[in-house]
């Protein structure tokens, strides 16, 4: 063959390789590479060919494709990964090879010849080895092997260099695809799978015919915000990474672990698992995660709440399973945290109820389904009505009259709490003003609960002032109640807001006082008028010495700061008499009166008193 025709033939080979590699992606790269190697083996009249990629992180060369396929490949394959530190001179040369190299049967290549002979069972060979280059980095090698000896011409090696360049471009493209796929499926902080990968995995696991049940463990760290606030977000991120690594170490390596963002993780065990086994795994992982973490010289730990749920392939969807696991972890957290909860039928009913509430709550304010009831506050010495606390109710279309506990939490979760609170305040002030216009309630105080959302909303104080002015009320006749936990969430914002309310003239009460949120240290600096003893300390008064000790301390505190004191949840005569005996005479509770509609409240205010069904004279 003439030199010109040989050159044309090699050009056609290079063009053919370029055409085959052009449309290759990560999924098809190995099969197409193997086909190209087969074509090149035939064209160059050699006996075998291989494509290897270098992994410079571990200093090794990895087999990507070879031709022809080797029969009876041992496991593990000694040619699959060859570490450069352990390699013979020929393999070692591939780490930084920059120009084609030709090896022929000679003493210098004895180690390489022996390795090939042992694993391919062939006689001594000759080989052309061409580097894959990315700039100055050798990313792999393309090799062609001939049993016996072969002389490689310069134009053939140039053609192989062009082909190696095409393979290097393919390698870079596949690695970029792999990196994009990795980033799309993994969390960048921890390297765990992300929500997208979790959903895809569960879709596959829950497909009809797959083994089940499939368990999901939903992890939610308790109060990670404290670490971020105290040590900064860098420390918080480090804490998250440590816990992610502990989850990896605590599972079997085949389980999928995903971070959903923030401090939420999901573990999906690889094997089908019943609830008892999944719960046991949850307890083991919870114990591992509770171990202390060293950060900036601090030994920190955080408890974790875990929700466990099962899904059955062909019956349940991914959203079904994750919704159950989420509901279970919410149950664990609402029980005080550091708990494990397994999804149950009762939780399922709760979800159904919550979804129903959320569906109808969106329009409840506009359609007039909300109404107010009032809980009288009574002087237990005389029965005189001192105040009325406005309590919102919802006339649900199918579930009847609902108390706030049934829907306030949902309102907060869908950002309706502020709007709902404004409705309550405006409606209560309007009704209170009507009572006064009718000549009743002039000596009583209207108490209105304020949500955390309202308290931190810009313009809240101005809104209160406008409503009071609109209905012609004096500020001293209105008392806004905020829970003790809300006060300390953001003490500076609370202090500013309460000072503004004081300027407007309205009174302020701390509700649920004594529940352990440490407002005591701030009490003397807050413009507060009233403390309301939480009903959990009142319910068993007369029987529980611990509750009595707390109530007596709160009574002394109110006296020291010259604050009004109201006991909530008075349901027994014993509790009422115990309170009176220790100097607390203002109270609310079912013993005195249940919440009543507005018309009944107006009638009670007209009477001025509620009949007492117990002796108000304290026993000595």
What does this protein look like?
There is one protein chain. It is built from 22 helices and 23 strands. The protein is of the alpha/beta class and 620 residues long. The chain has three domains: 3-184, GAF domain (Beta-Lactamase); 195-343, 2-Layer Sandwich (Alpha-Beta Plaits); 371-391 and 423-607, Alpha-Beta Barrel (TIM Barrel), CATH 3.20.20. An eight-stranded mixed β-barrel has the order 14-15-17-18-19-20-21-22, surrounded by four helices. Strands 3-2-1-6-5-4 form a six-stranded antiparallel sheet. It has a five-stranded mixed sheet with strand order 8-9-7-12-13, sandwiched between helices. Helix 7 crosses helix 8 and helix 8 packs across helix 9 (275-289).
Give short descriptive properties of this protein.
22% strand; Beta-Lactamase; elongated; Alpha-Beta Plaits; 22 helices; six-stranded antiparallel beta sheet; 620 residues; 3 domains; TIM Barrel; single chain; alpha/beta; eight-stranded mixed β-barrel; 23 strands
Strand order of the largest sheet: 14-15-17-18-19-20-21-22
Indicate the overall shape: elongated
Pairing-aware structural class of the strands and helices? alpha/beta
Biggest β-sheet description: 8 strands, mixed, barrel
Report the CATH architecture of the largest domain.
Alpha-Beta Barrel
Radius of gyration, in angstroms, nearest whole number: 38 Å
Q: Provide the CATH top-level class of the largest domain.
A: Alpha Beta
Q: Enumerate how many helices there are, as a single number.
A: 22
Number of domains: 3
Classify the helix fraction into a percent range: 40-55%
Unreliable parts: none
- CATH homologous superfamily of the largest domain? EAL domain
CATH-defined topology of the largest domain: TIM Barrel
Distance, first to last CA: 127 Å
Strand content: 15-25%
Indicate the mean pLDDT. Answer: 87
Total beta strand runs: 23
């Amino acid at each position: 063959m003439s030199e010109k025709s040989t050159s044309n033939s090699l050009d056609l080979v290079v063009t053919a390789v370029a055409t085959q590699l052009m449309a290759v992606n990560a999924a098809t790269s190995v099969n197409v590479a193997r086909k190209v190697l087969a074509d090149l083996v035939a064209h160059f009249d050699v006996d075998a060919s291989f494509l290897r990629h270098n992994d410079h992180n571990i200093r090794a060369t990895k087999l990507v494709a070879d031709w022809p396929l080797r029969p009876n490949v041992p496991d593990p394959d000694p040619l699959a990964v060859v570490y450069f530190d352990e390699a013979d001179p020929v393999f070692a040369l591939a780490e930084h090879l920059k120009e084609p190299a030709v090896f022929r049967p000679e003493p210098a290549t004895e180690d390489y010849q022996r390795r090939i002979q042992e694993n391919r069972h062939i006689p001594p060979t000759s080989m052309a080895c061409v580097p894959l280059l990315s700039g100055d980095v050798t990313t792999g090698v393309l090799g062609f092997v001939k049993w016996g000896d072969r002389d490689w011409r310069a134009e053939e090696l140039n053609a192989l260099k062009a082909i190696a360049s095409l393979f290097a471009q393919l390698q870079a493209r596949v690695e970029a695809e792999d990196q994009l796929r990795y980033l799309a499926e993994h969390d960048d902080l921890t390297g765990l799978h992300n929500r997208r990968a979790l959903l895809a995995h569960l879709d596959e696991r829950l497909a009809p015919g797959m083994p089940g049940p499939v368990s999901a463990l939903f992890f939610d760290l308790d109060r990670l915000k404290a670490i971020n606030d105290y040590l900064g977000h860098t420390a918080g991120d480090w804490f998250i990474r440590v816990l992610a690594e502990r989850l990896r170490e605590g599972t079997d390596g085949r389980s999928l672990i995903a971070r959903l963002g923030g401090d939420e993780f999901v573990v999906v065990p690889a094997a089908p698992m019943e609830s008892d086994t999944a719960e046991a795994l949850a307890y083991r992982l919870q114990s591992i995660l509770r171990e202390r973490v060293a950060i900036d010289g601090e030994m920190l730990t955080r408890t974790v709440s875990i929700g466990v749920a099962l899904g059955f392939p062909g019956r349940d969807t991914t959203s079904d399973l994750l919704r159950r696991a989420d509901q279970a972890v919410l149950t664990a957290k609402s029980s005080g945290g550091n708990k494990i909860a397994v999804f149950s039928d009762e939780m399922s009913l709760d979800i159904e109820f919550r979804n129903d509430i959320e569906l109808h709550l969106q329009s409840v304010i506009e359609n007039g389904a909300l109404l107010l009831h009032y809980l009288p506050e009574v002087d237990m010495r005389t029965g005189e009505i001192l105040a009325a606390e406005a309590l919102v109710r919802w006339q649900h279309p199918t579930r009847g009259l609902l108390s706030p506990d049934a829907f306030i939490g949902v309102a907060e979760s869908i950002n309706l709490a502020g709007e709902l609170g404004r409705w309550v305040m405006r409606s209560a002030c309007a009704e209170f003003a009507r009572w006064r216009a009718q000549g009743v309630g002039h000596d009583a105080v209207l108490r209105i609960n304020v949500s955390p959302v309202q308290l931190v909303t810009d313009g809240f104080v101005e809104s209160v002032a406008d409503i009071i002015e609109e209905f012609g009320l004096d500020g001293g006749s209105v008392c806004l109640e905020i829970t003790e936990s809300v006060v300390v969430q953001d003490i500076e914002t609370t202090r500013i807001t309460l000072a503004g309310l004081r300027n407007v003239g309205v009174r302020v009460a701390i509700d649920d006082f004594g529940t352990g949120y440490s407002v005591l240290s701030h009490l003397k600096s807050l413009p507060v008028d009233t403390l309301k003893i939480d009903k959990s300390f009142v319910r068993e008064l007369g029987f529980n010495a611990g509750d009595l000790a707390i109530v007596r301390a709160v009574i002394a505190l109110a006296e020291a700061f010259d604050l009004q004191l109201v006991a909530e949840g008075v349901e027994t005569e014993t509790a009422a008499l115990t309170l009176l005996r220790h100097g607390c005479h203002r109270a609310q509770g079912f013993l005195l009166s249940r919440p009543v509609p507005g018309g009944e409240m107006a009638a009670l205010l007209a009477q001025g008193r509620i009949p007492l069904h117990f002796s108000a004279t304290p026993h000595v």
